[in-house]
Structure formats: structure tokens, C-alpha cells
Amino acid sequence: MPVGPLIAEYQQRENWGLRMSARTLMEKDNVLQTWRIKELFNPALKRSHKLWGDLIESYIALNRKRLTGIDHSAYVGLSGERKQKATKKAIAVLLGRITEIIQRRHDIVHNCDRPKSAVQGLTLAAASKMLSDVQVFVQILDDHLDAHRAYP
Hints:
64% of the residues lie in helices and 0% in strands. By secondary structure, the chain is an all-alpha fold. The chain has a domain at 49-148.
């Protein structure tokens, strides 16, 4: 991770340096793969709070099945191995959903929304759900980074 943004003074928020450092790295690497989020942020988190294990429960608690693939009430009723499998599946669904949104944004910006040479349809409802999902994804991740970063 680039060190400059990490140690620079920022007035906006406490973790702004971490966010700017990640942004610099993402711009350099042109990161479209959401699985890299874990790779990029885990070095800045305490060992006991790495992504995504305990964090996924915050997303499941929102009860947005399109975001995690499972209802909160169904998840709470699970235990043991079934809960572990549901957790892994929820992580995969969450990252899949965010990847889909990031790829769509990339196609709109860089390919005039023609990933396979045909314009893709986008309804207001679908766009609204995408924005809502990204907003909550970033907010929960940001709160986790604030609470569990490894450096002051």
C-alpha cells in the first residue's frame, strides 16, 4: 500500500489516509476484482478483524437477500457447519453483487455501456438498488476500518 497517503494529515475523517492510499493503489492497478479488497485492506487491520469473516454478519443483518443471498432470520437460526457454509456463501454472493456493479460502472464509463457491442438496459429501479447496495457496502466497510485498523 502506498505510504504517502497513509501518513499525510487529512482534515475530513480519521481513516481518510487509508482510503486515499487504497484509492491510489486501485488507480495504479486498475482494480476491478472485488476479491482484491481483502488483499488491499487486510494489512491495515488488526489480526483478529480481517475481512470478511465477522464483517459479513453486518451485511446479513440488513436483510437484503440480493446482497448476501440469505435472510437474516434464516442465518440466525443456523449453527455449526451449516452456519459456516452459509457465511462463505454470503461472502461470495456479496462480492459477486459488488463485482457486478463495479463491472457495470466500468462498462458504462469506458465502453459506452456496450460490453458485448450492444447497449445494455438499465431501469431506474435497478440503478437505485445498485446505488443503495454500494452505499451500504462502503458504509459498513468504512465503519469496520475505523473500528479495527492496526495503526492509530
